[in-house]
């Protein structure tokens, strides 16, 4: 059995997947990770989940791996020491995640823990895509670069095609990210050094003119912390509409509220810019894959966007699209560019990757 | 009945340390005088220089020129001299390029005392360009009260950018209160390019989708023009957004800006200065902010290669983005010093863009020697053109259009 | 980030109000101070402070380690001690009140919040509680000169956890107590030339001092200086000098423009002028001193002198601190204490360490019982102080919002 852990500072979720089972099963959920505090309670929880079954591995989804982690790794002492070094780059997250990893490690003893990073894939971005046009000093001293995000999905989405294919992967979750990759190498990613860059979310702004930041600071005396707060927590769909509602409900107002319509137009424009970036970086396009937890509710938006770029040679099936599990094509047979939906859940993807990782370890061990 | 009276227009185009001027006889668009004052107001060892042409007669004057007003005074003297020799050289209208009027002006405007008052409030919006142009207008207003004066705005062409592309996903109360939206720049140039391209190809501008790449040694921007109207521009609320430029960083994650400020204990002023004046090509390449020098250094210098790749990548991103919103383009134009002067740049930008209908004829491109030229390959859906910039002519055209309206309504 | 703090603040409410109640029930005096400190130390340990200790002077020092070894921030609160009646000396601090407890609790919980939220700091957060008997500054000297060691040189700022009504206070007037000592030879209890007895001799001087008190300067932020005659004592015959002595004890509140030495000199000059015709009268003006015995068993002679101080509003630490709270829902302004004096007289006036005050309740509230200030306000003060610490020495996470991860 494999257990996957998704911990996002506010909630902790554990999924279990048995050999031969396809769909993962959510088996533990807590809003306060303190519920798992203490060795015994965690061990008890795991025992309850696994019954008498053998746990092969506990896999973690980790949001940020900096420069250190170019792929999944076993969590051991050395790992923890390196991971802790990322604290200054993501102080909000790393100490919490570190604590969680240590807690599992202490409680579960011999069971291997494996970390999968959302940023690993993007360490191989071309330099011209990775760096900002800043003085060299800052690139060097501050490790400012595009870290990207949703790498676990993007790698999978673009990796399932022949190496010569040019593919774009769009993950629609709390954040929306657009990635272009060819031959298992990423060529562009919308999300930058932080999620402020790229595509707007419920509350974050997506691409803006950095000059606006200076204008507000210099002319209107905003502090940078105030602006940071505004850009990440008060902008996006919330900022444009003034409606503090979930995106699910925002989508229901499409076509009925001018502010909501504008917000989705701005959203589409930002997605379009990054699809454009991907096309330019690859010099063409063969496949588009959409994935992520919000995929199904965004289908009308996706359909709209595809219609707008149908001139590229995209023809889609009419709505409603079938709710197939896993990966399904929604482009028509004659479509020059293929369009797919990937309905895998993140946990399912992590199980998939965990199995691959285990095989690799066994393979490496046996030479 | 409408009649078009002829008039000579003195068009003034200020850069941060230069002043370009032309006297153009309208509506014939005949250039009578043109000149440029360089190294204005900057402390260099070399003196400031004015290169002045009257018809084909060239004069070069070296003198200390402490500011743009002095440059204009000197140029006016030269013009006065010319006028003594040839009576038809003089001018009857001033036309100024004004970079950033914010949201307060939506068309070419005749300058009067109240207009100057309103312009005064826009000075901080473009701290380099606006005050310079403003000074000149004030000077002309005072010294030449009888000569009509027009302000031609770089932003007006972009008024047509639709909300979907002009809106930032920021809180509505903030954008409303402070007038934050995509304003767009280089409008005079993009409009000129649109008109020249259609004239050259003999096409109706109201039926064309044009992507105009204004790639200069100063600022660079790309504009999507849909049937005569600008629908998107890579520059935003300020000229900092969009492409990488000589010293501007272009698109960047604001989170990175905050982090640098935090890490280096920079004030917002320091950080703005770095992103505007020390980044871009200069930031990456370090030895120069001029892409032409980057191109020359590319063979041996890794950072030169990187600066070039970054510059090209961003131009391509915007061309592709605009191709998506225009549903491909009919015409792709390269203009301004880099766009016209660097064949390798055009070639690299066009590379791999045939998916979007853009294909360059490498040989014709490499052999380009001047003027308006079609450099597209056979079978390219989009016509790829090189159009040398002539902003002063566009400034004169804009001013003339208003002038004849004013004149007719009299 | 502020959301992380806010949610942790909500999570600590129960623990905070329980501890606050416990503190309120404790009637602190000279003999049980050790138990009281023990209670505080125990709570700090339980809340996860990386180290908690007491120094020689009885100061409690709790540390939350920084991720890097950069500048530290201090949150300082004080413990007022109700001296035993017969030992009790009058000082500028009012005794026998418990309002200080809110400051102690909010300081400790600010630290706990930072710790619980797992927000790394670049330097240490040091939370100190200083027992304070009357005007004694021995404790704070001990803290800075000995106990904090090298850390004392790397302090970005001090937050005084004192009542400010959630404003950010930047200073207060100085306060000193001096005594004018007049000595003269008495013949049958009468001063020779005056023909009046010793008590009558004092009146002209008292009169002069009252005149001075009407002409004192004032400061636009801190308010007016003040002079009060606190006590007049006849000490009788001094055998060594064969002179009789009386003292006028003056409580003097003064603004930064005034100099303490000049104030003393002026007092002396006034006295001299009053008695210039009396050849055998000598006068002097000296700072009042008191003898203090700490609960840790040290005897100290201390001068009753609090220096005035005032921080500039644009000073970086002050600016960042007020921004951090006003951007997160506090309606705070810069302010100044009108009545009380604080340890800023030492940290800013003497050591020049940027110092601000922030806390729940009002200056007047210090006189009242702890119970009158609700635990919700104390929790809010802790949240505000934690925001300030985070803003000043925290490692910020830009761009990532906790909702969106």
Describe this structure in words.
The complex is a heterotrimer of chains A (367), B (410) and C (405). Chain A is 39% helix and 17% strand. Chain A is built from 13 helices and twelve strands. In chain A, the strands form two sheets. Chain A has a six-stranded mixed beta sheet with strand order 3-2-1-4-6-5, sandwiched between helices. Chain A has a six-stranded mixed beta sheet with strand order 9-8-7-10-12-11, sandwiched between helices. Helix content of chain B is 40%, strand content 20%. Chain B has helices at 68-85, 113-120, 129-143, 163-166, 172-178, 187-201, 254-264, 268-277, 280-285, 291-297, 302-326, 336-341, 343-350, 362-366, 391-408; strands at 7-14, 19-26, 30-38, 48-54, 57-63, 93-98, 109-110, 148-153, 209-215, 220-226, 229-233, 331-335, 373-374, 383-387. In chain B, helix 6 (187-201) crosses helix 15. In chain C, strand 16 (289-293) and strand 17 form a beta hairpin. Chains in contact: A-B, A-C, B-C. At the A-B interface, helix 4, helix 5, helix 7, helix 8 and helix 9 of A face helix 4, helix 5, helix 7, helix 8 and helix 9 of B.
Note the topology.
The complex is a heterotrimer of chains A (367), B (410) and C (405).
Chain A: E1 2-7, E2 12-17, E3 25-30, H1 39-50, E4 57-62, E5 73-74, H2 77-84, H3 94-108, E6 113-117, H4 127-130, H5 136-142, H6 151-159, E7 166-172, E8 176-182, E9 185-189, H7 210-219, H8 224-233, H9 236-241, H10 247-252, H11 258-282, E10 287-291, H12 299-308, E11 327-329, E12 338-342, H13 346-365
Parallel strand pairs in A: 1-4, 4-6, 7-10, 10-12
Antiparallel strand pairs in A: 1-2, 2-3, 5-6, 7-8, 8-9, 11-12
Helix pairs in contact in A: 1-3
Chain B: E1 7-14, E2 19-26, E3 30-38, E4 48-54, E5 57-63, H1 68-85, E6 93-98, E7 109-110, H2 113-120, H3 129-143, E8 148-153, H4 163-166, H5 172-178, H6 187-201, E9 209-215, E10 220-226, E11 229-233, H7 254-264, H8 268-277, H9 280-285, H10 291-297, H11 302-326, E12 331-335, H12 336-341, H13 343-350, H14 362-366, E13 373-374, E14 383-387, H15 391-408
Chain C: H1 2-25, H2 33-46, E1 51-54, E2 60-64, E3 70-80, H3 100-116, E4 123-132, H4 138-147, E5 155-160, E6 168-169, E7 171-172, E8 174-184, E9 186-187, E10 190-191, H5 198-214, E11 218-219, E12 223-224, E13 226-238, E14 243-254, H6 260-274, E15 282-287, E16 289-293, E17 299-303, E18 305-306, E19 309-310, H7 316-326, E20 334-335, H8 344-347, E21 355-357, H9 375-393
Parallel strand pairs in C: 3-4, 3-5, 5-21, 6-20
Antiparallel strand pairs in C: 1-2, 2-4, 7-19, 8-14, 8-15, 8-18, 9-10, 11-12, 13-14, 16-17
Helix pairs in contact in C: 1-3, 1-9, 3-9, 5-6, 7-9
